[in-house]
Sequence to fold (260 residues):
Amino acid sequence: MIQINNLSKVYKLSAKKMQELKTRNPEKIAVNGISLEAKEGQIYGLLGPNGAGKTTTLRCVATLLKPSEGDIKVCGYDTVKEGEKVRDCICFLTNEIKLDPNFTADYMFTFFGRLHGLKEDEIEARKNELFDAFGINDFKNKKIEELSTGMKQKAAIAVSLVHDPKVVIFDEPTSGLDIITARVVTDYLKKLRDDGKVVIVSTHIMSEAEKLCDCVGIIIDGKKVAEGTIPEILEETGTDDLEDAFFKLYSEHKSEEAVS
Ligand SMILES: Nc1ncnc2c1ncn2[C@@H]1O[C@H](COP(=O)(O)OP(=O)(O)O)[C@@H](O)[C@H]1O
Ligand SMILES: [Mg+2]
Fold:
């Protein structure tokens, strides 16, 4: 289980960044008081436009960033005080973390397996399962730099799952992928959910969230503006699909902001 309790994250801006953003404010509030729970056997979708605060939230859950306020528990462990225990039970996939281009998927998989303290036969068994599931065997001995975007992403996902983590945190896992590769990824996320894992993903693709997620939290400007199952969100907003629901919530949020 992931429990995010009143999370805020404020970035301190450098003088250069302030100039870039044309602001005099030296602080950027990226996440502003978000609380949520992602449970076992469920895919939770963090949904929001670019800059909403999805990556920042997930990086805090993955112990890569320290919250400015609030706290996060993963499998009962505090992400700040018990970071190591949290890292043992999670995997985190993000666009910014890349596999080393000079090595092969096969090598990277074994390397990370050893890093997690797995035995050689356990690593081989996991490799067989994951390389089959993602169709990696055909290119497992090619250098990462020679692979297409889709192949790289499949390799990165397989490597991230080497230690069979209880909690799966994927930041925009299908971004940049063709529909066939994207489907392989979303089908595997459903399998992980059905195996009882906690799965949290971020996406800005409404149609994907609609098909994939059991529960979604819609985030705009660092705030959670709606949460629930897809039918609940449609009912609450009086709309027929998630894209319409999003636009309704977005315009409500912007007009509330204009008043305050
Ligand atoms: N290292 C950083 N320093 C300053 N501002 C940042 C930094 N990282 C992200 N931001 C800002 O925080 C906000 C949220 O970013 P992010 O969490 O990446 O959103 P998302 O993943 O939803 O697109 C954006 O306005 C972004 O520009
Ligand atoms: Mg992001």
The chain is about 40% helix and 25% strand. The chain has a mean pLDDT of 94. The CA atoms of residues 91 and 161 lie 6 Å apart.
